[in-house]
Write a sequence for this structure.
């Protein structure tokens, strides 16, 4: 595939234009595909700025190879082994009315991605939208409509089941869950000062009947069963993989950083102070013969906005290295791993006969990685220090459940990190990859910054080319800024450089399917951007 950019990609847009991108796809309402051209030129703001943008596909000889097809619904075969997906907007389905947000823009965007040779898209499906009003009553209509759109274009679909809430965009937990939480706040994670994190349920209630007589795991399983039934026409064909939500932002971690001010260099706080977590800690301490260790979390740990070394716990030779520190950090981490094991096991058993791959996501807590105690990882639940490998048991748990692992931060380099917090995303990624390689766990990479970081594409390519455990990369995330003149040409160059999957001759659409859009991308396309 060949991509060329003609003209200036540095066209200047006004401040209001840039601001409008923050809300999603609202300034792409006239973005469309006509006769195999993806056109941005009729967008009013772009028109005022004198910008037109066209992506055009040309017919070429189809690639004829005898490689085995990878399964039903697969429209491409890989060249370098790393497949490329793009995330759809977080608010692709409206919270208020369960309909598709910016449907025309998303439809055109899907066609543009297909023309580029992208294999598929990732769709977040929110618990708080589908099961919003009443337990056991599901409305999948908006998400089914998107699955049909994706199927029609010929892309694959990775579904992310989100059992957490979001503040931006504003998608809370189901109303009935929040109502229970008002009278039973201990269903939520709690920090030392008593603040509750209300964007997901505490892992301590996984097996407690706190949701109108049912446990959260039972509710999650019923949700998954309903999803499986409702999307059965797409399972194993259009839908090729599913990621199971495991905690805050869908990740396997404690919400240790949710109160951090934007410019702080803190390491977060331990989240073990809801009544159920404290009860489990007390039981564990008594069983170990040290009942006083079960009275609470570390008394000398810092608060959110304090330097991790302003108090005693994380300093070299301090509490984290003591017998108590080993006891607490092991228990705290094991609770998290047991939670992940429970949910991934449930997802694997539920979807095991559906022809899909199951994923779980872990965070990249790279701040303070260059220190001995790794405080950001410890508060998030990963007992990873100079004395202990915290990712070996995590990789073992994924391998046990035959699940693949999603890792963010593929766009982050050590050179771009602030020196004062001893951050090292590259070394942390390398450590996690080593654990995955040892336990034969395949990895799906993601970028961490949706707005882009300097040198981000080069760093992604570097990570994708050097490790054989990576088999998929999902670029986050489609939106107005994704298709902007500053970004989209860079993305097309990135796609070209990955040696993306080439279309098999059997996958070319028929004239009846395409009509006016009869020519399709095989392995050569061009992108032109012109300023008026």
């Amino acid at each position: 595939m060949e991509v060329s950019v003609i003209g200036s990609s540095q066209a200047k847009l006004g401040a209001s234009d840039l601001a409008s991108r923050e809300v999603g796809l609202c300034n792409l309402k006239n973005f469309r595909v006509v006769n195999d051209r993806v056109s941005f030129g009729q967008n009013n703001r772009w028109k005022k700025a004198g910008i037109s943008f066209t992506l055009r596909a040309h017919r070429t000889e189809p690639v004829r190879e005898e490689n085995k097809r990878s399964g039903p619904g697969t429209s491409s075969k890989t060249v370098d082994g790393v497949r490329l997906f793009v995330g759809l907007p977080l608010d692709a389905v409206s919270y208020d009315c369960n309909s598709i947000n910016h449907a025309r823009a998303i439809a055109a965007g899907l066609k543009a991605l297909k023309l580029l040779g992208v294999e598929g898209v990732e769709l977040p499906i929110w618990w708080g939208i589908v099961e919003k009003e009443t337990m056991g009553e599901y409305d999948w209509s908006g998400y089914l409509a998107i699955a049909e759109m994706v199927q029609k274009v010929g892309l694959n679909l990775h579904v992310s089941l989100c059992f957490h809430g979001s503040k931006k965009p504003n998608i809370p937990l189901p109303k009935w869950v929040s109502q229970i939480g008002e009278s039973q706040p201990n269903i939520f994670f709690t920090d030392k000062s008593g603040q509750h994190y209300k964007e997901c349920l505490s892992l301590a209630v996984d097996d407690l009947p706190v949701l109108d007589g049912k446990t959260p795991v039972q509710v999650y399983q019923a949700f998954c069963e309903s999803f499986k039934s409702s999307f059965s026409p797409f399972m194993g064909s259009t839908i090729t993989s599913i990621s199971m939500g495991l905690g805050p932002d869908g990740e396997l971690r404690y919400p240790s950083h949710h109160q951090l001010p934007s410019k702080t260099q803190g390491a977060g706080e331990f989240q073990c102070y809801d009544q159920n977590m404290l009860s489990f800690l007390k039981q564990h301490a008594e069983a170990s013969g040290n009942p006083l260790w079960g009275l609470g979390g570390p008394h000398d740990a810092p608060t959110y906005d304090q330097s991790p070394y302003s108090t005693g716990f994380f300093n070299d030779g301090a509490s984290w290295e003591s017998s108590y520190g080993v006891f607490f950090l092991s228990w705290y981490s094991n609770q998290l791993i047991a939670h992940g094991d429970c949910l991934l096991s449930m997802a694997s058993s539920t979807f095991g006969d559906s022809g899909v791959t199951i994923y779980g996501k872990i965070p990249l807590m790279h701040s303070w990685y260059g220190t001995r105690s790794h405080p950001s990882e410890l508060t998030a639940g990963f007992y990873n220090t100079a004395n202990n490998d915290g990712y070996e048991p995590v990789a073992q748990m994924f391998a046990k459940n035959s699940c693949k692992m999603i890792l963010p931060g593929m766009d982050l380099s050590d050179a771009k990190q602030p020196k004062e917090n001893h951050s090292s995303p590259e070394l942390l990624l390398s450590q996690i990859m080593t654990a995955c390689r040892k336990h034969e766990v395949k990895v799906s990479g993601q970028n961490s910054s949706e707005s882009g970081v300097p040198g981000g594409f080069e760093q992604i390519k570097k990570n994708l080319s050097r490790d054989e455990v990576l088999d998929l990369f999902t670029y986050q995330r489609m939106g107005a800024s994704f298709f902007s003149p500053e970004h989209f040409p860079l993305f097309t160059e990135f796609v070209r450089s990955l040696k993306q999957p080439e279309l098999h001759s059997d996958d070319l659409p028929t004239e009846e399917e395409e009509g006016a859009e009869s020519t399709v991308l095989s392995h050569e396309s061009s992108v032109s951007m012109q300023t008026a």
Observations:
- Residues 81-184+194-259+339-369+379-496 form a domain with the TIM Barrel fold (CATH 3.20.20.80).
- The first strand starts at residue 32 and ends at 34.
- The two ends are 27 Å apart (CA to CA).
- The chain is about 30% helix and 15% strand.
